[in-house]
Each structure stands twice: as structure tokens, then as C-alpha cells.
Amino acid sequence: MKEFDIIKKAIKKVAKNIFFKGSKKINLKGSYDFFTDNDLASEQYFIKIIKKYFPKDHILGEETCNDTKLENRTWIIDPIDGTHNYANGLKEFGIQVAFYDNGETKFSIIYLPYYDELYTCIKGQGVYLNNKRIETYHDIEISSSMIALSTLTHDDKVKNITLDCFSKLNDGVLDIRIVGCGCWEFTSMIQKCFGAYVLIRKDIKKWDLLPGILMCEENNLVISNKIYKGFEYCIVANNDKIFNYVEKNVRESIKHSI
After folding, report:
1. C-alpha–C-alpha distance, residues 6 and 11, integer Å
2. What is the reported pTM?
3. pLDDT tens track for 184-222
4. What is the sign, positive or negative, of the torsion defined by CA atoms of 114, 40, 233, 258?
């Protein structure tokens, strides 16, 4: 697939020439949110490459074109997922790109630069890590599972829901982790490091979901993305037992916190 090959090469170039050589200068885009010069430079490079080869395609990117509607031949770009980690010297961040056409995600790529881990997935062809196929076994028990929760937001209602969910889930599982990087958490689900990953927001952005969701679908993880009482939640679980346990607690936390 031409689109896949072109963007795969572009991601490696971005990591080499921007992430490890560019500027981490912080630019505020809200009271508690920011982007670095490298977020912007990375997204602009992807846009340049896409427009060179596919000038009529649509682009949905976090920094410069975040209002684009999802329609045929749309590229979804998150130039740095986990920007707060990246800007503060943590290694848990990544680049993620997906390509959407004819009503579905056709392929996705996630690259974790500091680990040199390149996850690739073409729909129907499985998930690969550095060109080696990854299988996910669905045998994690609830009591021995680690659960990953999305970061707290500064929206009081979402924050309270997440904290309540943290407390409820913690009673029945091994431990809870908040990593602060969705693509790292999605790839950890594929690697069977977590029993479940939970993301709760009022509105979950497509660039936070689509790249990782396709990979989890390919490896037959249990996935649900729903809106409940005005809040959107996405749950990815290793198996049905963990999923049912997590979803029950998420919905109870939403009811309890609003």
C-alpha cells in the first residue's frame, strides 16, 4: 500500500530529524495544556508529505487542523502523543498516524522513539512490532491484572469520575497505572502488560483513539467506546471478564460523580 509505505518512512524521519534534534520549547494552548515546537514541526512535516503525494486528501491533526471532519481519505495525525511526558524528559511518548477511508480505519502506525518500537497494522493483516507479528493471549485474570487509566483532566467532573473509578477498580485488581500516553497504553495492551485501559472524557478525540483501536481490534481485544450520561468512555480489555468488571465500575463512577 503506497500510503502506508510513505508515512512509515516519514515517521522514522520525524523521529530522527525532529524529536532528537528539534526544540522542546513550550507553547501554551490553554491554562493546563501546551504543545512544543516539535509537536508543530512534526505535524507540518507530515502534512507536507501527504500533500506532496496525495494533494486531495483530508488531514485531521491535533495541532493545526483539528476541526477536519472524518470522511473518505482522511489522515489522522497525533504528532506527539504524551507531550507532557516528552517535554518533561520522560520516555513514554510516541507518534501515531492512521488512515481512514470508506468508513473504516485502513491502517495505523505507532512509533515510540526512545524505545525504537515501531508498531504497524494494516486492517486484516495483524499487528507487527519492528516487522515481527505480535499475538495477544487473552488469559489475564482480574486479580492479577494491571489497569491503565487515562490522565486526570482539569475538568472537575471528569476528574472526579476518574478518581472514583481509580478507587473502585483498585479493590479488585493487582494495581492501577496512569502513564499519560495513550499510544503507549494501547501498545502495552497488545503486549499484554495491562488487563485493561480506560479513557474517560466529555469528548474523546479521534487522534487519541483510531490508531490504537485498530491494532487492538486486529488482536481481538475487547473494545467499547460509548457515551453514558454525557460522558464518553473507551475501554479496551484483555478478555470479557476483565471488560465486564471494568465497565461496571466505570458506569457506577459516572453515576456517582455527576
Report:
1. 9
2. 0.93
3. 999 999 999 999 999 999 999 999 999 999 999 999 999
4. positive
